[in-house]
């Protein structure tokens, strides 16, 4: 018997009488004179397999080494468990210690650490129940994303990570260069000469794959991207990362209403997928962190999102009688306090706001006939705020060029994007979903740093 059995499969099958070999990490060990209980976890499932050891059959030293955090291979016989909550346990016959974990120094020796403490040991936090659960859910959601789009006939396009454009025009980018930072080549004006840089021009890490995604939508009709995205915005909030993963579908022949419909269907699909496939992990998170989690997830799956124009939302906020820190007026960007009021107090359900003032949105959004608003939409979620930002795109060449000029952007750097409106342009729309915000919502965690394996935030990239 040399093939390792997976603990998730053992607990699911619940069969006893079988010989198995399991491998995993010790979560707890309880010693008594005649019996030692070891709770072994291999990460396949939140539950541990109970190993029952008769100390008389083992070297004392091996049992001492099998302390919390140690990695073991154990073989033996599965027997029916007398303990509640587990179908079977393993009667140990052999124990091999792969790696010890000195109880004096192992940081996870005791339970009950705060999430803040665990962030400082990001290299070890995957060994906890909480992070095991969060990252199994994250995996399931990533799979659901691909399944949803694949089943709908969307094509997955890998847009570049190094780009020369700033899709959002916000200038919050990380530069990519291999020039010597101490002594860069200078041009005649005394400025850094990027023509001598690796790509012969200024380049940065992408803030969005949308512009490239549009080019493919205008050829393959329905596409999506799912990749890392980088923003050098100094927002130290529980909702922002400097490196995050974004899903950006882009659809030819979709208008704003189709876009809203897809956004709702997509989120509901992913949440439902997690409810159906991550039951144990979500129940754990519900119990430990957020008693309303499962209720909230089911509510989102079962109810339509409210659709409200920006203009109507501003009226609602003004008439609310609420004291907001930031004043609301038509034309201002809504703050998260306003978004949360709409979602959590006024509508008590997810909200899709649409038709925003053009001056607070990006250059590529389709202009409405009123001359003031664009066909933008934001999907707002309870506890999260904005989870999706999207729009119908401006497909008219002249209008798009005008807007680029109005905003003082350089049309030369976007010539290839503009050509998509010159040759075979078509109405199209798309949106961006921040993957970690979805994982935050589904796991009920409060801080975005706890739903990505190794968070990159201002002053933090150690692990
Ligand atoms: P916010 O106002 O919350 O900063 P944004 O308007 O800058 O968001 P978009 O540019 O529309 O966001 O990006 C699309 C989606 O990407 C957002 O709805 C959000 O889910 C996600 N997102 C944006 N910035 C971040 C970030 N720094 N960290 C994690 N997710 C982000
Ligand atoms: Mn932002």
Write structural notes for this entry:
The structure is a single chain. The protein is of the alpha+beta class. It has two domains: 7-99, Nucleic acid-binding proteins (OB fold (Dihydrolipoamide Acetyltransferase, E2P)), CATH 2.40.50.140; 126-172 and 207-450, Bira Bifunctional Protein, Domain 2 (BirA Bifunctional Protein, domain 2). The chain has 13 helices and 16 strands. The strands form three sheets. Strands 6-10-11-16-15-14-13-12 form an eight-stranded mixed β-sheet, with helices on both faces. Strand 14 (373-381) and strand 15 (385-392) form a beta hairpin.
Category from helices, strands and their pairing = alpha+beta
Q: Strands of the biggest beta sheet: in what spatial order?
A: 6-10-11-16-15-14-13-12
Overall shape: it is: elongated
Q: Return the domain count.
A: 2
How much is the average pLDDT? 96
Series of secondary-structure elements, N-terminal to C-terminal: HEEEHEEHHEEEEHEEHHHEHHEEEHHEH
| Helical percentage | 25-40%
Largest sheet report = 8 strands, mixed
Provide the CATH superfamily of the largest domain: Bira Bifunctional Protein, Domain 2
CATH class of the largest domain: Alpha Beta
Total number of beta strands:
16
User: Might you state the CATH topology name of the largest domain?
Assistant: BirA Bifunctional Protein, domain 2
Q: Nearest-angstrom radius of gyration?
A: 27 Å
Our count of helices gives 13
Kindly report how far apart the N and C termini lie: 38 Å
| Name given to the CATH architecture of the largest domain | 2-Layer Sandwich
* Strand residues, percent: 15-25%
Ligands present: adenosine-5'-triphosphate, manganese (II) ion
Question: Segments where pLDDT lies below 50 for 5+ residues?
Answer: none
């Amino acid at each position: 018997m040399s093939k390792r059995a997976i603990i998730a499969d053992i607990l699911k099958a619940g069969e006893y009488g079988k010989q198995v070999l399991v491998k995993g990490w010790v979560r707890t060990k309880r010693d008594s004179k005649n019996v030692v209980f070891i709770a072994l976890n291999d990460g396949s499932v939140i539950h541990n397999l109970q190993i029952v050891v008769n100390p008389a059959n083992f070297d004392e030293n091996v049992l001492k080494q099998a302390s919390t955090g140690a990695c073991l291979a154990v073989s033996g016989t599965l027997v029916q468990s007398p303990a509640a909550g587990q179908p079977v346990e393993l009667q140990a016959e052999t124990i091999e210690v792969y790696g010890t974990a000195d109880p004096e120094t192992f940081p996870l020796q005791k339970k009950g650490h705060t999430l803040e403490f665990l962030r400082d040991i990001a290299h070890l936090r995957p060994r906890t129940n909480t992070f095991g659960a969060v990252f199994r859910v994250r995996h399931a959601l990533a799979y659901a994303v691909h399944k949803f789009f694949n089943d709908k006939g969307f094509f997955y396009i890998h847009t570049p990570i190094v780009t020369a454009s700033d899709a959002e025009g916000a200038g919050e980018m990380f530069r990519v260069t291999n020039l010597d930072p101490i002594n860069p080549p200078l041009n005649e004006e005394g400025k850094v000469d990027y023509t001598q840089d690796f790509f012969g021009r200024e380049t940065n890490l992408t803030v969005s794959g949308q512009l490239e995604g549009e080019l493919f939508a205008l050829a393959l009709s329905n596409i999506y991207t799912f990749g890392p995205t980088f923003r050098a915005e100094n927002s130290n909030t529980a909702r922002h990362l400097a490196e995050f993963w974004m899903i950006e579908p882009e659809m030819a022949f979709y208008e704003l209403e189709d876009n809203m419909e897809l956004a709702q269907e997509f989120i509901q699909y992913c949440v439902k997928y997690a409810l159906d496939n991550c039951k144990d992990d979500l129940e754990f998170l519900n119990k430990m962190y957020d008693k309303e989690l499962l209720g909230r997830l089911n509510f989102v799956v079962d109810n339509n999102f409210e659709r409200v124009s920006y203009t109507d939302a501003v009226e609602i906020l003004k008439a609310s009688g609420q004291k907001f820190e930031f004043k609301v007026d038509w034309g201002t960007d809504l703050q998260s306090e306003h978004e949360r009021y709409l979602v959590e107090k006024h509508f008590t359900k997810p909200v899709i706001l649409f038709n925003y003032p053009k001056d607070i949105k990006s250059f590529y959004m389709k202009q409405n006939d009123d001359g003031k608003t664009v066909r933008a939409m934001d999907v707002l979620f309870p506890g999260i705020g904005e989870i999706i930002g999207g729009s119908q795109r401006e497909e008219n060449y002249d209008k798009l060029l005008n807007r680029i000029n109005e905003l003082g952007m350089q049309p030369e750097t976007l010539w290839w994007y503009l050509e998509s409106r010159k040759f075979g342009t078509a109405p199209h729309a798309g949106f961006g979903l921040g993957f970690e915000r979805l994982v935050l919502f589904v796991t009920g965690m409060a801080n975005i740093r706890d739903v990505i394996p190794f968070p990159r935030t201002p002053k933090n990239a150690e692990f």
